[in-house]
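Minimal example, chain plus protoporphyrin IX containing FE.
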Amino acid sequence: MCGMHITGKIGYFEKLATHILLMSNLKDHGEVAMANGEDGQKIRLTARLPKILGHVVRIAPNELVFSTPQAITDIYSAAIKNHETWVKTSFTDFGTGDGGISWEQDPVKHRKVAKRISPVFSTKSIKAKEHVLQMYVDMFVKRMQEIGGSKEGIELPKASDLLHQRVIATNHKCPLKFLFVPPRILRTLPHVLGINSQEVQRRIDQRANTKHLDYFESLVPPDAPIPTGRELNHLEQIAAQLLVAGYDPVADQFYGLLFWLLKEPDVLATLVEEIRSNLLRYEDIVPDALVSLRYMHACIQESFRMMDTGPNGMPRVSPGAMVDGVYVPKGVECQMSFFAIIRNEKYFRDALSYRPQRWLSPDHPKYETKYSDDMLKAVVPFSTGPRACPGRESAWIQMRLFLAKVLWAFNLELVRGKDITFDRDFSVHTMWNKPSIWVRFIPVERE
Ligand code: HEM
């Protein structure tokens, strides 16, 4: 989940860990006594809670967790004139004095900033930025051609580090360049904020002289006066949030996709065949040509399903409303356990397995009837309603391009990490902690 991917605040899973949940007088919301989980393993506990307690669980005196698809709609889609009625909690109030976009709690202020920034997420604007995305994916492919075929393989998720310095050194002053900045740097907040302020200042200085469109084009137009004081702080918040929002979930999915594909060789083979038979030349790999690749679409959707993008629960404050048949009084904080939903056999057959075929339509050769009752609409990686992700279209383009170019250019081989399992080796501390695996990127020889 991108809007709140910053450490330092206690989140849902940490709360589960620190509370020994002794729920008395819970009348409607079940009762649980639960000991601390293994470090980083709390997410597994949450997936088990609904089985033990039902679809709503009280995790703190004033906090509930829901785990049904209907609750997603009831909480996140509720709005009056595009203003959310379930407002964000102070979970992401970092004391900066300005909520930017994703941390803004006031729906009216949020709407204002969302409108101001919305032009950069339009299809037209994303199209104009496509070449920047292409450039970075090409850089990755080129680097892997140089070093990715070595016997020991490349360490994921650290492979992206290889591009780090080079990317930073490029002259493209826009948040997209952080596509490949390693998480350990992104998560070092002071360092990130330092870079961020410099970048914002540089971007302001260059406002009449940018090389290409970027996320700041509508915030700092060429003829704008130099922002100072509060406006400068506001811009810095937005830049930092776009940087984090645009980096972490995409990076998780790049990694997740490779991880699942390497674990499922048949799926990988089918996807490779789809890509290579539809795209004869590397130059043919452009976003428009990838939209019709149905198996690729299914693989990406399934990766979203497996690696929940809202692991911190996306907490909201109830305005006093019904959630999936339960009245939640005003002021009670509610969260979603998306992880519990996606691992529930009630909603997904073979819920714990990576099965892209569940996303295919009946006319696809790989379609399997046994998944026809899966509740696909319960997977909402970009959330829904007024606070849904504005970067959705850009994220899809990035993932398709990355997957298509990498699998067109390389045969992948898992060298080390074969024994790694999702259930044992992945964990969540607000963000996903991904284990290291070593992958060979063996260039495909073509005549
Ligand atoms: C795989 C990629 C992505 C996923 C799964 C994803 C997911 C999400 C989710 C679930 C939210 C809602 C958070 C909440 O309500 O607390 C969100 C918000 C947001 N995302 Fe993304 N996101 C992705 C990529 C991007 C990209 C590329 C950008 C562009 C920079 C972006 C910008 C934002 C912003 C600005 C918000 C805050 C929206 C608001 O509060 O109005 N995201 N994202």
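Residues 1-4, 101-102, 114, 241-242, 245-246, 249-250, 253, 309-310, 314, 381-383, 387, 389-391, 394-395 surround protoporphyrin IX containing FE (CB under 6 Å). The first strand starts at residue 56 and ends at 60.
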